[in-house]
Amino acid sequence: MLKIYILQELSTQEVKELCVRNADTDNSVGTVVESIIAKVKTEGDVALKSFAREFDKIELAKLYLDKEELNELASSIGDRQKEALTIAYQNIKKFHEAQLVNEAKIETTTGVTCWRETRPIEKVGLYIPGGTAVLPSTFLMLGVPAQIAGCKEIIACSPPQKNGKVNGYLAYCAQLLGIEKVYLAGGAQAVAAMAYGTESIPKVDKIFGPGNQYVTKAKTYIQTATTTAIDMPAGPSEVLVIADESTNPVFVAADLLAQCEHGIDSQAVLVSTSAELIEQTNIELGKQIKQLPRQAITEKAIANSYAVLVSDLKQAMEFSNEYAPEHLILATDKWEEITDDILNAGSVFLGHLTPESAGDYASGTNHTLPTSSYARAYSGVSVDSFVKKITFQHITEAGIRNLGPTVEILAELEGLQAHKNAVTVRIP
Q1: Is 322 a catalytic residue?
Q2: Looking at the structure, do residues 179 and 289 belong to the same domain, yes or no?
Q3: How much is the pLDDT for 131?
Q4: Percent of the chain, pLDDT > 90?
Q5: Can you give the residue range of the structural domain that contains 303?
Q6: Mean pLDDT in residue range 320-329
Q7: Is residue 133's pLDDT more than 90?
Q8: Which of 4, 80, 99, 334 is 20 to 30 A from 29 (CA-CA)?
Q9: C-alpha gyration radius of the chain
Q10: Given the residues 299, 326, 356, 367, the one annotated as active site
Q11: Number of domains within the chain
């Protein structure tokens, strides 16, 4: 059952506190993560094998699967599963290929031309979660834009299963992506391995992928402690559903549960103008949750979730923008009237027939998205995430005559004489 809050009865501070999640206020997660990172940094492969024994309960002879092993695993899955993964791959590729844009050269003033060109990040690391659920869809979401961007080296890490391998679905995704090696490392230790490099796992320039609190904390830590960048803080997962009298409570309950089955630290929030809709959704949650194989996990996440009763859709959107959800579902007939009011959200699902699951798997948009209110400042993963934008400029003789005096004055007023001289010596 979702705990219910009435927005008008909450103070501004209480609303802010309600929107806080995964804060790690006592730094208990941070302390564990820092010790894991330190061990991987100093001990390399030895540390990774030790953590595999401790966390994955597996003794690893080596820390990767090669092309032959991946092909063998991929051959074990059924044709229907291959077809579904292939369709998802094609839709994701189609959506992301449209993001490749050549920018025009701009003559900012006579004789001065400026432009930008893209260059791929050379070495990227993809983290594919595999704790309570292995996510081949994430492999596609990260691998496809990396492939389109033209990254020279793609390092993929995923936790080993009990047999010391990954599942066949992940292996088939590797085939689709043309990736010939998958490294057997999970959690904060995988992030550390890609940030520092070990005997087996190369150091990368940027790390991508969602994960639990430990993975997310590890990514934020290495971003400040190393020269390795990250895509964004991404995880644990969350959804916010805006609903009114037009909404089907069966659909809403299904969407909330879909998010909550990710993990016990996931969160689902229902914001509605209708007390009756909230009540009906709670009844549906009770019915549907009993049918789920991951009921125990889902129940814990539901206990971490809640509903908010608001007076109108404008107030609902104000709360949503404060929460800044990873996934936002507008489950209302009036979705077209309120989309312009969206300021902070990772990915948006419009109308009654657009479940968040579609974006998770196969509509084409990327499911690696900012969580924990980071949608205020971050975008989801795209081709842009895997490239750098480099600016260029070229100045002709007419250009240096035209622009030079302006630069001389600006350098002089800042007291930087050498800057002025670099222009003065060039003016004919």
Answers
A1: no
A2: no
A3: 67
A4: 95
A5: 3-22+236-364
A6: 98
A7: no
A8: 4
A9: 25
A10: 326
A11: 2
